Amino acid sequence: MSVFPVISVSAAVAILVFLLLKRFTRNTQYRLPPGPKPWPVVGNLPHLGPVPHHSLAALARTYGPLIHLKLGFVDVVVAASASVAAQFLKTHDVNFSSRPPNSGAKYIAYNYKDLVFAPYGPRWRMLRKISSVHLFSAKALDDYRHVRQDEVSVLTRALASGGSKAVNLGQLLNVCTANALGRVMMGRRVFNDSRLGSIDPKADEFKSMVVEVMVLAGVFNIGDFVPALEWLDLQGVASKMKKLHKRFDAFLTEIVEEHKRRSSDEQSDMLSTLLSLKEIDADDDEAKLTDTEIKALLLNMFTAGTDTSSSTVEWALAELIRHPKVLSQVQQELDMVVGKDRLVSELDLAQLPYLQAVVKETFRLHPSTPLSLPRMATESCEINGYHIPKGSTLLVNVWAIARDPQQWSEPLEFRPERFLPGGEKESVDIRGNDFEVIPFGAGRRICAGMSLGLRMVQLMVATLVHAFNWSLPEGLTAENLNMDEAYGLTLQRASPLVVHPRPRLSAHVY
Fold first, then answer.
1. Rounded to 5 degrees, what angle do the CA atoms 361, 363, 365 make?
2. Using CA atoms, how far apart are residues 180 and 167, in angstroms rounded to an integer?
3. Can you name the residues that pair with 383 across neighbouring β-strands?
């Protein structure tokens, strides 16, 4: 009898056993988090729906707080609870400190030359340090306190000059934040003073550009997840991004070139500092700061630092109008601390705990970035007993975490008292250490401008509430005020807040 068939059968059995063992081992050691079954080619992209942070929150109620999706050919994990987010952004923060490739960074943000989307590494650390020291340090914030107060005073005068006429509040807030940033970054206003009925046309164009950035950046572009289809640009996203980039680049190039033409001997703004660093480090290729990187930083500041703050203030005022008892209590606190003969200053904010609680509650219910900017796993790791493959994209559902009924009582209700002494979350802060509410993110990639954003939002909310009483247009009640969200990377209102301001302080204040 020939031994060849016996050897063949033995080999086949051995191979079969090996494959079964390998499969068993893979399933036990490399168990992916649960999630919906993907479709062919596009994977779970159809599951994201028109408002992804809502759809992902619904999926988390079915599959749990850690979900695995397949978007095209990309592994994506979604964190939808405070404990899971903490594991990613605290325990495994270093591993998730880089960004995945995406068309927004490629076509709008100067091909990853900015701070927000730059890969984690020496160049990113250099850009982060420059921003932290020269724009967002405590000293820099204190030095430019008067600028923010000046611009909020301009906004107040503009509102008071209208004789209680209805205003599109978001439009005026956007001009205010852009001009405050402009004076800090380049020593001058970006737009002409706001007066009701005569908004600088450039301001309208700027706001539309920023909103378009946020809308396009919020699109889950098929080309990012199915590389073979990228060249087709099936959704037209890449084409729109390229056109928008040209508009922004022209805007920023004009700012930089005009600034270079001005005498810089007495200038102490951020752009002067960036240009001086460029000259100082011109012979050091490692530290050399290019014009492109300078424009990319300015792009970050103008897009991330304007509409996020103005839209948060818009949400806050909408909530206060819907909750007149809360509004009355904030005004009482302001009247006691500030009085009625002057405007609020930033130095007053520390003495306004209820106002701070209102701002916290607004950030909880209406986080400016409801779905975190994506991060990427540098190496494989394990979270909650599940395998997270190398190269996976991480999304943190900030919006869902802040509405988690296991963490918050009556999570859909606007209740600032929850952050006051005796409240359920009195010790919880929003600066990235308490993961129940992380509107600015957490870890190494936390929003660089968090401190500036908090100051600006608190000052604007305090001033608007202190200086004016507010009413809605005729026929509109607080109960039927539209609180729907618009689609995009940032949490815009679906319909702008149109309101009537009525001065409530001494006439000379305005």
1. 70
2. 20
3. 386
Q: What does the block give as tokens for 363?
A: 């950030």
Q: Is 447 annotated as a binding residue?
A: yes
For residue 265, tell me if it sits in a domain: yes
CA neighbor of 79 nearest in space, from 379, 378, 398, 441:
398
At residue 18, the pLDDT reads 42
Cα(117)–Cα(102) distance, integer angstroms: 9
33 within domain boundaries? no
Nearest-angstrom CA–CA distance, 375 and 331: 41
Helices and strands per DSSP (H, E), number in the chain = 18, 9
Q: Which two tokens stand for residue 271?
A: 């752009």
For the chain, how far is it from start to end, CA to CA, in angstroms?
108
Q: Say how far apart CA 119 and CA 136 lie, in whole Å.
A: 21
Tell whether the torsion through CA atoms of 344, 347, 348 and 352 is positive or negative. positive
Residue numbers of the domain that contains 246:
50-509
**Per-residue pLDDT tens digits for 377-433:** 999 999 999 999 999 999 999 999 999 999 999 999 999 999 999 999 999 999 999
271-319 per-position pLDDT tens digit: 888 888 776 544 555 557 889 999 999 999 988 888 899 999 999 999 9
In-domain check, residue 256: yes
pLDDT at 232 over 80: yes
CATH number, position 304: 1.10.630.10
pLDDT for 195: 54
Q: What's the CA gap between 101 and 374, in Å, rounded? A: 9
Give the Cα separation of 77 and 375 in Å (integer).
10
Q: Which residues pair with 168 in a beta bridge?
A: 498
Residue 280: CB atoms within 10 A of its CB come to 12
Q: Is residue 18 in a domain?
A: no
Q: Which structure tokens are listed for 230?
A: 């990228």
Contact 88, 33 (CB under 8 A): no
Number of domains forming the structure of the chain: 1
In the sheet that 393-396 helps form, which strands lie side by side, from edge to edge? 66-71, 74-79, 393-396, 375-376
Per-residue tokens: 139: 């000293």
Alpha-helical (H) ranges within 323-449 are: 324-337, 353-365, 398-401
Q: Shortest CA distance to 368 belongs to which of 465, 282, 454, 299? A: 454
Helices 353-365 + 307-322 axis angle, to 10: 110
